[in-house]
Write a structure and sequence with these properties.
This protein is α/β, with parallel strands linked by helices and 348 residues long. The protein folds into two domains: 73 residues, no CATH class; 227 residues, Alpha-Beta Horseshoe (pyruvate-formate lyase- activating enzyme), CATH 3.80.30.20. 38% of the residues lie in helices and 14% in strands. It contains eleven helices and 13 strands. The strands form five sheets. Strands 1-2-3 form a three-stranded parallel beta sheet, covered by helices on one side. It has a three-stranded parallel beta sheet with strand order 4-7-8, covered by helices on one side. A three-stranded parallel beta sheet has the order 9-10-11. Strand 10, helix 10 and strand 11 form a beta-alpha-beta unit. Helix 6 packs parallel to helix 7. The longest helix has 24 residues. The two termini are 19 Å apart.
């Protein structure tokens, strides 16, 4: 949610509070940003509880204190704090589930606020992760997505790496599809590629965020790889896993992006032939280095480039789909289509 929409929604809560005796609590990574909490305290005094990403486990205690003591609570702690286990998860799907394996990030990409609001990388104990997935398997879940800001830098201790975790999840009976997001290209090691190759459960649709095809822009983003290194990684994966296909993230209009830089991005898109592209127009985020860069790209140019990228990708969709004609593919059916009760569908 964009900050403007978030603050507008917060304002609407005032009317609800005036008509009903309720407690209003607002939490999440935005609450780790001082200018946001200062704004809430000054302009939205009707908010009772403000909590950060690392104090979710204390929300019942905060609510209790608010009820008993009639006090307003700001519960924000050190973003590099410990990992808390056993917090209940409300899931909206009974066939596929996401499992967080680590928190925070050490990369400090210049457009990203995550390291500042979620802290440095902290990995969960592998035993706790595997036990959670085993329980999900017992409950009938079939697809698991391993989550982390940079999953392939997971460190379970005692030289237990992400590749080891993939192998152990692969052994869990009942789980049929394994996915993971988001890996970082600079940390996509050969042992991870080998774990995917030897598994029959890990999806061959592999997400490898590009962000930009320009080495100059990647350097400005602090991504720590070049265009050539990214393409080399894709080639290494394809040689080991011939049936691999790729999805990616691309940011259009990063500060300083020239026409030549953007053409480099289009060049990578053509060469890799992505199955899916999550496209984003660069937007400034207070607290990041990119927000302070003087060479901001105009909104008009950003939108024109976005449209060109979209057209290029859409032209490849039909061609990509042709390779599936006449083949049998394994999919996870989650229910009946809302538009056609006689058709089964996979919900995204």
């Amino acid at each position: 949610m964009q900050k403007k929409k978030f603050l507008e929604s917060s304002g609407e809560l005032k009317k609800i509070k005036e008509n009903r005796d309720i407690i209003i609590a607002i939490g999440g990574c935005m609450m780790q940003e001082k200018h946001i909490t200062d704004k809430l305290k000054k302009s939205y005094p009707f908010v009772d509880i403000i909590f950060g990403t690392h104090t979710l486990h204390k929300v019942p205690e905060d609510i209790y204190k608010t009820i008993i003591n009639k006090e307003k609570i700001k519960d924000i702690i050190d973003i590099d704090g410990e990992v808390y286990e056993g917090i209940p998860v409300k899931r909206t799907n009974n066939r596929k589930a996401s499992v967080t394996i680590m928190y925070g990030c050490n990369n400090f990409c210049t457009y990203c606020i995550v390291p500042y609001v979620r802290g440095r990388e902290r990995s969960r104990n592998p035993e706790n992760i595997l036990n959670e997935i085993k329980e999900l398997a017992k409950e009938g879940y079939k697809e698991i997505t391993l989550l982390g800001q940079n999953v392939n830098s997971y460190n379970g201790g005692n030289n237990y790496k992400f590749s080891n975790l993939l192998k152990d999840v692969d052994k869990i009976e009942g789980i049929e599809i394994i996915r993971f997001v988001s890996p970082h290209p600079k940390d996509f090691t050969d042992d991870v590629i080998e774990s995917i190759k030897t598994s029959k459960k890990i999806s061959r649709l592999i997400h490898v965020p590009l962000q930009s095809g320009s080495t100059n822009v990647l350097k400005a983003m602090n991504r720590k790889y070049t265009k050539e290194q990214y393409l080399n990684l894709i080639d290494r994966i394809k040689k080991k896993i011939p049936d691999a296909v790729f999805s990616t993230d691309i940011i259009v209009g990063f500060p300083g992006e020239t026409e030549e830089d953007f053409e480099d991005t289009l060049d990578v898109v053509r060469k890799v032939n992505f199955e899916q592209i999550y496209m984003f127009i660069y937007s400034r985020r207070i607290g990041t280095l990119a927000d302070k860069m003087e060479n901001q790209v105009s909104e008009k140019i950003k939108h024109k480039r976005f449209d060109r990228l979209k057209v290029l990708f859409e032209e490849s969709i039909e061609k990509n789909n042709q390779k599936y004609v006449g083949t049998t593919q394994k999919i996870l059916v989650e229910g009946y289509s809302k538009n056609n009760p006689e058709m089964l569908t996979r919900k995204n």
